[in-house]
TrEMBL record:
Pfam name, any one: PAS_4
Gene3D superfamilies per the UniProt record, alphabetical: 3.30.70.270, EAL domain (3.20.20.450), PAS domain (3.30.450.20)
PROSITE patterns per record: EAL, GGDEF, PAS
Protein name (Swiss-Prot/TrEMBL): PAS domain S-box-containing protein
Listed SUPFAM superfamilies: EAL domain-like, Nucleotide cyclase, PYP-like sensor domain (PAS domain)
Length: 883
């Protein structure tokens, strides 16, 4: 990615500067009005033109950077059309059209875009309320405008004169625009409501200028109405521009079970009340009530009834959804394997699932309202209280164990996983997932040897150990029962950097997570420092399903008590020809090894295919060490396209391997093999030298090259020297090199950060590759030397039809922009995806739609076709929309 490509200048407009400019222009208009004619005419007109052109110049970049570029883009178009219409009406020789009428078509263009500020989800959920509110707003605004005119002028408004016709048209337009603005204010929240309020007041100011323009048309000259017209127009433009500048929050829709806000409930009624009071005041002052006012008042009352009816219906539906949701929750919790207890801030039980009654030997209803510590052993109460009330500082849950007394006086050992949701406004409670881990004696009919084996216990978790697994498996093999074994390897339980074991509480937490996903009858064992096993009844398919559930509980992106872990699992069935437990365990170990090779989060079953795959990997591992010397490795280059400049700003160097026997080998297959040893550092050094030399030899001084750097290469401490050597040998400037690193590397030792800072002093740019798919923590984006974020292809999944995926892409763009980082979107493959990314404001994209990875000999020809590819992508999108 090339973050150095020159782009648009940074936006210099801020709401504060806009306000200062508006005040200065208004003062200039006021001063100009005191001059003698024609200087006063020229001064007022000059200030108005400066306000109009300045707002247009600042509005274009503000619209592009906003969350709703289409809305503000339409505003710019509408105001330009309005200004042009007013100017034509004023200056065309022989024109009898007032300036007010000339400006009306442009203002009408801003009606519909304003509604696009309302989130799409809100339209879907509250369509009836929004439509009835809009009609009520419109009628109330018309009533207010008519009553205000008659109060001020002392006469009824008719259509007998051109002036009155102009006022009627202007009033209807004003009422429509203000009604739209009120609707947006009532149906938005947070920062978006602030934007809507500014837009509403801007609309009011623009329309007031329109009304005053009608009076100035009658006066023919630089009169107070004309001066006030210029002032109101300037204020309105400044408010609309400030709204566009503040529109930076991504649009969100309210959940379907969120009730309407107080503003949404009261604003239509307050507007109707205002219209009614003005009507009543007019009757008291002039002692008359016109037909038009009577009709509007009657229609307003009807719309109030309609709005109340629709609101009642929506409230009824919301209540039913909430009741149904609560019923679903209770049904799910009742059917859960682990009993659930919900506690308030004082550790009082507010709700329990039926399973908790089984553990304590009493009815669940009798537990509600009691302190959870009452039934706990006195020696365990202090530890339990600390585990429940201590704030959780990370995203992981906390595990605690305590002895609990049953109704019959016996004690049970209960393990609880604490999830602190007290800060969640929708929950505001502690949720405790409980499991009875009391050890039971083996059945009386079991032999003495089996009872001795079952006694083996892991000291960290209290789980049965490997000897217990062998004993249980021996019984299964002897009985010929349909069973299976899952072996889980947890990477990180033995610290890879320091060679030490993980803390006991981390091991216990992992065991607790595994226990919660087991079915009734499944048995969990700890068979090694980083290894767990499960013996289950069922088929190999059942074992695979359970293995996936076990692996998913140790997500690589969610640290466990501050420690990053990942899991892989292998599964095998107990077969009829098995005579010894060791045969089953050997197959499970082979399957687990295959899963570990495949990567974190993978599950593999033992099969002949897995054995063949393992043999292939061993052969590739051996051949890869000689591939570089034999000339089997080469680089291809994929352009990264700058949509603003319509050309490629950089290329990414990608490694390819042509095996003499198996042909082209996927990078996803051989790169992990290289990363297992120092070979990846040798390959990385060769890629740096080759790529920098190739790009430096091209006659394209504005083209940069991005190189992927492996984690082992960064941690080796040799990266800085290798980059210096490559730049010196090739002559490529440092600012034309981008190093792409994974997120996990950036969170490594302190010397890594020091090396990256030294690289940036050379001009080299640092990019986070596959952002959002690894150890994503927004905190590191602030404190580490990062220039570019590369969004993984996963972000584009369903982006064409999923509003949430679109919001996610938009959020990453805003995040990078606010931190002064460029954002590159990888994996763009369709014209529709490209257009959506354009509309969101993304500037840098990479994917097969625009250019595939290309050999160096054809790279320049490929770069020259980028503008054509962009045009073709745009044309394809137009055809898709038309279809």
């Amino acid at each position: 990615m090339n973050p150095e490509v020159p782009g648009a200048p940074p936006m210099r407009a801020t709401p504060r500067r806009v306000a200062v400019g508006a005040v200065l222009l208004c003062l200039g208009i006021a001063v100009s009005a005191t001059w003698p004619a024609p200087a006063s005419d020229i001064g007022v007109a000059a200030c108005a033109v400066v306000a109009f052109l300045g707002a247009a110049a600042w509005a274009l970049p503000a619209a592009r950077r906003s969350s709703h570029p289409a809305v503000w883009g339409w505003y710019v178009v509408g105001l330009v059309v309005a200004g042009a219409g007013a100017a034509l009406a004023l200056h065309v020789p022989g024109s009898v059209v007032p300036m007010t009428m000339g400006a009306l078509p442009g203002l009408l263009l801003t009606v519909l875009p304003l509604l696009r500020l309302i989130p799409v989800g809100t339209w879907r959920q509250l369509r009836g309320q929004l439509v009835s509110s809009l009609l009520l707003f419109l009628v109330s605004c018309l009533l207010c405008a008519l009553a205000a005119f008659e109060l001020v002028s002392g006469r009824e408004l008719t259509l007998d004169t051109a002036f009155d016709a102009t006022l009627v048209t202007t009033g209807i337009t004003l009422a429509l625009l203000i009604a739209m603005g009120l609707l947006v204010v009532s149906s938005t929240a947070g920062e978006l409501r602030r934007v809507a309020v500014l837009a509403l007041f801007g609309q009011v100011a623009i329309n007031l200028a329109l009304v005053l323009m009608a009076f100035s048309d009658e006066a023919h000259g630089t009169t107070p109405p004309l001066v006030m017209t210029a002032v109101c127009a300037t204020v309105g433009l400044s408010l609309l521009l400030s709204a566009a500048l503040l529109d930076t929050a991504p649009p969100t829709a309210s959940p379907a079970d969120t009730p309407p806000s107080l503003v949404a409930a009261l604003l239509p009624h307050l507007t109707a009340l205002g219209g009614g009071l003005l009507l009543l005041l007019g009757v008291l002052v002039h002692d008359r009530l016109g037909l038009t006012q009577t009709a509007l008042a009657g229609l307003g009352l009807v719309l109030l009834v309609v709005l109340q009816t629709v609101s009642w219906r929506d409230g009824r539906d919301l209540t039913r959804r909430l009741q149904r949701s609560e019923a679903y929750f209770r049904a799910v919790v009742r059917s859960a394997v682990d009993p659930v207890v919900i506690l308030d801030g004082q550790l009082t039980i507010t709700w329990t699932s039926p399973g908790m009654g089984d553990i304590l030997g009493r009815e669940p209803g009798r537990l509600t309202g009691r302190d959870v510590r009452v039934a706990v052993h006195p020696d365990d109460r202090a530890a339990l209280t600390a585990a429940l009330l201590t704030p959780q500082t990370d995203r992981g849950d906390r595990t605690t164990t305590a002895r609990v007394r049953r109704e019959d006086g016996t004690w049970r050992l209960v393990q609880g996983v604490v999830r602190d949701l007290r800060q969640d406004p929708d929950v505001g409670a502690l949720v405790l997932y409980c499991r009875d881990i009391t050890r039971t004696d083996p059945p009386a009919q079991a032999d003495a040897g089996l009872r001795a084996a079952v006694g083996g216990t892991d000291p960290d978790t209290g789980l049965p150990d490997r000897s217990a697994l062998v004993a249980d498996l021996a019984g299964v093999v002897a009985a010929g029962a349909r069973s299976a074994v899952v072996k889980v390897w947890v990477t990180g339980l033995a610290d890879a950097h320091r060679g030490t074991a993980a803390p006991a509480d981390v091991v216990a937490e992992v065991a607790g997570r595994f226990s919660r996903v087991l079915r009734t009858g499944d048995r969990l064992f700890r068979t090694g420092p980083q290894e767990f096993a499960v013996l289950l009844e069922g088929t190999i398919s059942d074992a695979e399903t359970l293995a996936h559930r076990l692996v998913s509980t140790v997500g690589a992106d969610v640290p466990v008590l501050g420690l990053r872990l990942s899991a892989s699992a292998g599964a095998t069935a107990v077969e009829a020809e098995d005579h010894e437990p060791v045969q089953v365990l050997r197959r499970a170990a082979m399957a687990m090894a295959s899963a570990r090779t495949a990567g974190p989060g993978r599950v593999r079953r033992h099969s002949v295919a897995a054995l063949i795959a393992a043999n292939r990997q061993e052969a590739l591992r051996a051949d890869l060490s000689r591939a570089l010397d034999r000339g089997e490795l080469r680089l291809v280059y994929q352009p990264v396209v700058d949509l603003a400049l319509q050309r490629a700003g950089s290329v990414e160097a990608l490694l390819r391997w042509q095996h003499p026997v198996w042909g082209a080998i996927s990078p996803a297959e051989f790169i992990p093999l290289a990363e297992e040893s120092t070979l990846v550092t040798t390959l990385g050094r060769w890629i740096l030298h080759t790529a920098t030399a190739a790009i430096a030899a091209l006659d394209r001084p504005d083209l940069s090259v991005a190189v992927n750097v492996a984690a082992r290469h960064v941690r080796s401490g040799q990266l800085l020297a290798d980059v210096r050597d490559a730049l010196a040998a090739s002559g490529l400037p440092g600012d034309r090199l981008v190093l792409e690193l994974t997120e996990s590397v950036l969170l490594d030792e302190a010397h890594v950060t020091d090396d990256l800072e030294a690289l940036r002093r050379l001009g080299v740019r640092i990019a986070v590759d596959d952002f959002g798919t690894g150890w994503s923590s927004l905190a590191y984006l602030v404190g580490l030397p990062i220039d570019v974020l590369k969004m993984d292809r996963q972000f584009l999944a369903s982006v064409e039809s999923g509003p949430r995926h679109q919001a996610l892409c938009r959020s990453v763009l805003h995040l990078g922009t606010s931190l002064d980082m460029d954002v590159v979107v990888e994996g763009v493959e369709t014209a529709r995806e490209l257009q959506l990314l354009r509309d969101m404001g993304h500037r840098f994209v990479q994917g097969f739609l625009l250019a595939r990875p290309t050999e160096l000999e054809r790279l320049e020809a490929t770069l020259d076709t980028i503008p054509v590819a962009l045009l073709a992508g745009a044309a394809d999108d137009v055809r898709e929309v038309a279809l």
